[in-house]
Specification:
The protein is of the alpha/beta class and 320 residues long. The chain is built from eleven helices and eleven strands. Strand 9, helix 9 and strand 10 form a beta-alpha-beta unit. Helix 3 crosses helix 4 and helix 5 packs across helix 6. The radius of gyration is 24 Å and the shape is globular.
């Protein structure tokens, strides 16, 4: 090898070294830009994002970095048209590599707009009943992962009927996009098993968005208890006021949530799961995705954290 050739070879090697290893000796990292997309502000969302950021940053394997980009945060303010517009914006913005969704509409609007990057769906009450998976629990799109809490509805009703006598059960639920009546039908089947009648009602605001207070005004108050999936559209003050109104009316409210809902005044919740634990479940999924796992190939059946939360005030009020 000539001197000129050796110099050229050495020059190319040095270029390669300084291209892939920075002067400080750190390994070049794969960077993922993360976005959050919520249907609207909800009391647990900010806590979830805080835990999620801290947990994911701490859990990242060597060679990876995540950036929570400002342009990736979208909140539709509980307006469906805004949700669709924001979903289209995320499709057009190729700087966002992965989106964590919170609440209704968001997943559906992203998929319908053609979003092709990973979507991690958090805080969906029943993804299977909502049409986000097939009958076996596999997400309807390869870039989607969801969390199904197997037997969640059945477990909640079993807890409720063990705490208080239920002859007539009220049910109010923010409707899903694909299957708005499937959860109600499942609840009626459980009513036959536990011998209670299911009573429901609907109410909408001026923009056509489901409104729990208006639905509550419409429901027959001659009920023993009220079962509630997430109170989408309510901030912390509205949530406390809603639970307080139901207690004032002598109605036990069973929340599908966990300790946060009980802290706001729910009679009971069928899960002992905290927002921190919920976040950790989704952090594990994101970690697997950035390492190459197809989102739809991840496990979807993840049970609730064991435990039952009961409000002391509500328990004493109802003699439990």
């Amino acid at each position: 090898m000539s001197v000129t050739t050796r110099k050229t070879t050495l020059y190319l090697i040095l270029i390669a070294l300084f291209t892939f290893v920075p002067v400080h000796g750190q390994v070049i990292k794969t960077i993922w830009n993360i976005g959050f997309f919520e249907a609207g502000d909800y009391p647990s969302n900010s806590k979830f994002r805080e835990h999620f950021r801290d947990q994911l940053t701490a859990a990242l394997p060597e060679g990876y970095e995540v950036v929570f980009v400002p342009q990736g945060f979208k909140s539709a303010d509980w307006n469906r048209d805004s949700s669709r517009t924001m979903a289209a914006g995320l499709v057009a913005d190729r700087s966002v590599d992965l989106v964590v969704t919170m609440g209704p509409w968001t997943v559906e609007d992203l998929l319908e707009a053609g979003f092709d990057r990973p979507v991690v769906a958090a805080f969906r009450f029943d993804p299977m009943a909502e049409g986000l998976t097939d009958s076996l629990g596999r997400p309807i799109a390869d870039n989607l992962t969801v969390r199904i809490r197997p037997g969640k509805l059945e477990s909640d009703i079993r807890v409720l009927t063990s705490l208080t006598t239920v002859g007539r059960l009220g049910f109010l639920s923010f409707p899903s996009v694909y299957e708005p009546s499937l959860m109600l039908e499942k609840l009626r089947q459980l009513g036959k098993m536990y011998q209670f009648e299911v009573v429901t009602a609907e109410g909408y605001d001026n923009e056509g968005t489901y409104a729990f207070f208006k639905a509550y005004r419409e429901i027959d108050k001659n009920i023993d208890a009220l079962y509630l999936p997430p109170l989408w559209g309510c901030d912390a003050t509205k949530m406390r006021n809603f639970y307080a109104q139901a207690l004032h009316d002598g109605i036990a409210v069973m929340s599908s949530g966990g300790e946060y809902d009980v802290s706001q005044g729910a009679f009971a919740a069928g899960s002992g799961e905290s927002v921190r634990v919920t976040s950790a479940c989704h952090v594990w999924k994101v970690k697997r995705i950035i390492q190459g796992t197809v989102p739809a190939d991840l496990p979807t059946m993840v049970p609730d954290f064991a435990g039952v939360c009961v409000s002391e005030f509500a328990a004493s009020l109802f003699g439990i």
